[in-house]
Each structure stands twice: as C-alpha cells, then as structure tokens.
Input
Amino acid sequence: MKCRALFLASLLFCFAQAGAVLAADTIKLGVAGPHSGDLAPYGIPSMKAAQLVVKKINAAGGVLGKQVELLIQDDQCKPEIATNTATKLVTQGADVVLGHICSGATKAALGIYKDAKIPVISPSATNPDLTQSGDYPNFFRTIASDDMQAKLAVDFAINTLKAKKVAVLHDKGDYGKGFAEFAKKFLDASAKVEVVLFDGITPGAMDYSSIIQKVRKENADVLIFGGYHPEASKLVAQMKRKRMDTAFLSDDGVKDASFVKVAGEAAEGAYMTGPRDLSNIPINAAATAEFKAAYGEDPGAFFQEGYSAALALLNAIEKAGSTDYAAVVKALRTEYVETPVGRIKFDNRGDAEGVGFSVYTVKAGEFKELN
Output
C-alpha cells in the first residue's frame, strides 16, 4: 500500500500542475497495436497500461490542466493495416502515439507520423534500424534493441549452454529476421561456434517438421529462433516429438504466457531473452498491483514498457508546456521520468537509457530469470 501511495503522490505532483493553455479541449494520446488476432497478447497489455495511466492522470487533474483522451486503433501487427491505423490517428488529431508493437508495423507507420510531426514511443519494436538509421527522429522506445538482445542470446548459447553448432531460424519479418541476422553476425564473429543452418520459415504454417529435420541432421546443439510465440510453440512441439536434445533459445517475442499455454510440456526448458525483471522498483510494483486490481490477473508482455511509454509521453508534454512537436521531442531527450522500467530519458537516437534484457527459461510452466 505504501508503494501505491507514493506512486499516486508522484503522479499528482507531476501532472496536476496547470501549464500553457492549449487550443484543443483535450490532450490526445493515440494507442496502436494488435488488439485482435494471434499477436493480441502483445498489444492488449500496452493498451490496458495506457488506460490505467490516463485514468490516474485525469483523476489527478490531467496534463497542463486538460484531460487526456485515448484514441485506440488495432493494427493486428500487420504493416498494411498499420499504415491505415496511423492515418486514422493523424486524422483524429493525435498529439502523441504509444505504439506500434511489432517492428514491421511500426516501420510501416513511422513515415506517416513523421510527416505529421507526431512523437511516437513503442514499448516493444526492437529492430535496431528504427533508431540507428536516423530516418525517424520522431521515434522512441522503452525497450532495448535487437542487437543487444541477440548479443545476450549468443553469449548465453556459447558460454552457458556450451554450444559448438548452432542453427538459426527466423519468421522472415522485420523483427524476427533482424534478431536472427544479428545473432548470426555475433556467432560468425566467434571462433568457438559454427552456424550450421540459417533459414527462414513461413509464419502461420501448420507444420515445420522439414526444417526441424534439417536442424536435427546438422546435429545443432542450440536452435536460435527469431520471431513470435505461434511459430515458436510449433517448433518446440515438433522438436519434442522427435526427441531432440537441441536447446531452444529465442527472443522476447516468445516470452509470453501464450507460448507456454500453446506449447505445453514442450515449452519446458526453453530459453528466451526478455526485458529485465524490474519488479523491485516501487513504481513497477505499484503499476502491477494496479493492473491486478483492475483485471484480476497478472499483466502480460510489454505492460511495464507500455506503462512507461505512456508516462514518458505525457510527462514530456507537461515539461514542454505544450504539444508542440519540437518541444515535446526535446523534453523526451532531456527530462527524466520515473517509470516501471526505471528512471529514464531518451538518447539522441531515441533509445531509452538504462534498459536492457535478461535470459529466462521455462520451469514448471513459469518464466524464471537466469541473469
């Protein structure tokens, strides 16, 4: 209870101050992500995070004396839908956007937001080029990028799993392929391990037995997969049916309860990278308790990152004294904000300073952090 009281007090202090008078009646926060379809478990937690943040901030007086209005759009993590989603949010007058979730959908939408001069923070789009290319000065994220994640996975495969032969697969998407390519790059740079297979699979296919047979034929010690839980669950299930000893190692696109639920016993012993467990941070604990009280269950993937993104966007508007694009972007890069992922601001590329990944394994149906 003490943590929640402190959290509420900090929000009251940060957001109840009236600032510059804005022409609009409300501050409009767009939220874009998959709210239906197979990847909805990655988008719904961030949407609910935004709803919880906005409810609390509005109760505390809003931002710059105005209430925050949510504009929610479902992109199903599909680039072709994400462009329409972004256009709708721009048309509806979004001042800032929390989203998108998948890297491919994010990339498809960013140019539209850039042209409209709308700052965007993703809680989960980890493709390095989104910040490192310099093409999207309006883009920020509250999660570390794929190159950091892939380096951690490769180091774990070599130093902990003692791998000598590694197979690398991906789902051909911006996120999964990006992670896999970085993993291969780091593996190739090591004299301790051989990449025996690098290939893509077709998302949504019913059967991956042929590619799993290739992994088996190459005697891979570890299979590194870049992609999401629907494909990962099928891969581990088929590995189990073939009684393979190959370790399965993936990314945060797989670290979701849906992977364990669908894969069942086949998920046991699988490894994946994911955002560090920050439950010891008071604001993180308070946000989690808030979610449980509202929905009667634990928050899902990217809830903390989504909650942090919402806080960062609204804090930047408060600090900027307006919704002016340049002023909000400057505030994001210079003003620290206390969030569930830590006390953060964003570097010149748009990456949150101080966030990172850990390796997890599935044990007795639960994710256990290893480092």
Summary: Residues 40-59 form the longest helix (20 residues). The domain at 146-251 is CATH 3.40.50.2300 (Rossmann fold). Confidence is low (pLDDT under 50) at residues 1-22.
